[in-house]
Design brief:
Blueprint lengths: L15 H7 L2 H4 L3 H17 L5 H19 L12 H13 L12 H37 L4 E6 L2 E7 H26 L1 E2 L15 H8 L3 E2 L3 H6 L2 H27 L7 E2 L18 H24 L14 H23 L2 E2 L1 H8 L6 H9 L5 H18 L8 H7 L7 H4 L2 H6 L9 H17 L3
Parallel strand pairs: 3-4
Antiparallel strand pairs: 1-2, 5-6
Helix pairs in contact: 3-4, 3-6, 3-8, 4-5, 6-7, 6-12, 6-19, 7-10, 10-11, 10-12, 11-12, 14-15
Length: 462
Amino acid sequence: MKEKLWAGRFSLETDKLVDEFNASISFDKRLYKHDIRGSIAHATVLKEAGILTEREAKKIISGLKEVEKEIDAGKLAFTTGMEDIHMAVEGRLTEKIGALGGKLHTGRSRNDQVALDIRLYLKDEIYGIIALLHDLKAAVVEVAEKNFDCIMPGYTHLQRAQPVLLAHHLLAYYEMFKRDTARLFDSLERTDSMPLGAGALAGSPYDLNRGLTAKLLGFKDVTENSLDSVADRDFIIEFLSAASIIMMHLSRLSEELILWSSQEFGFVELSDAFSTGSSIMPQKKNPDVAELSRGKTGRVYGNLFALLTTMKALPLAYNKDMQEDKEPLFDTIDTLKITLKVYGPMLKTMRVKKENMLKATSAGFLNATDVADYLTKRGLPFREAHHAAGQAVAYCINRGITFDDLDLSEWKGFSKLFGPDIKDAIAIEKSINTRKIYGGTAFATVKKRLQAVMAEVKKGCC
């Protein structure tokens, strides 16, 4: 392409440094299919408006499909002189079909064209990410079901707190990922509006059927304000926010897997296929997938804040600053997709060390609350019961013993309400099964919820 499509106003050639600085073709070339889809729809609408004849529209559409095949096959070399994907496609189309290619840009601007391309692209990617989230949820459910009888310490402040089922713990992440899916579906509502026809900022002077364009491209509706159509990127920011929350959830799970796979915890062992070694220490087995997932979370956060900062002071309408929307978006999508793809297989191949988890519940007085509840059920106010249970804990710690080592006379030293059934009442499995409240960790409660989510996963439900 020897001359830029906008060169008529200018008497000097653009400096090569400006070409390099200004060009977005190196990264927005991934939009080529969406750009061509939008152009084919636009040609159809131009024909309906009488701006193109049927023969001209067919020739343009045929030429666009040929350009797409060339790009698919890697036969079209992208250069900074092309500036962006829109000019690259139009320039190549004009080379193929002559001056008629220039008619395609009638009634549109690159401002509404790029807004269209990004919305088309993001819609496709959101659906793909939703599918990957479904696979991850299925993996979580599979591991929970496989290890349903596994008891582990539940934690607050990273201190052992109360016993829970591993399945219950894992299903907490299922709920998070389910909400993540809902957020993505919700973000589609704002993405699924067709902006073409907004022109540069004021709307098109041609009588173009925007409703037809939306129908041809599969949009739910059309944007209502031409300025807003080209000047805002809140639909991208909303997606980046949802993606950041997904990565935050993955990072929290990653942190737990990293801890659990350490010798200090010894709760799980990650598969060799999803671990790496050390270049100097032969014994090492590092949870790099989990660590990278945790690390990449900061990268996705950065992309969200980068675009928020770019948009925070822009006057209406379009500004070249907005070219900076694509790299954070593309990087977030790529990062999120590869993380989701690798995460499910890592979980499913993980070995759960049930004996170690159960053993960990016997230390740290995880059933101390059950001691207090025992007394409360016998009429003692909970605050007094809490104090008595705390005294029992301190007594055991000072003597290096556990509740199991106490005899009845020692129990009665803390409260006369303790009876011979105290040890049975505070047994770990009993502790779990008393929490049969809706949403609790009792075996029956978790089993019921697990069956429900297994049905959701099987149906492909969000």
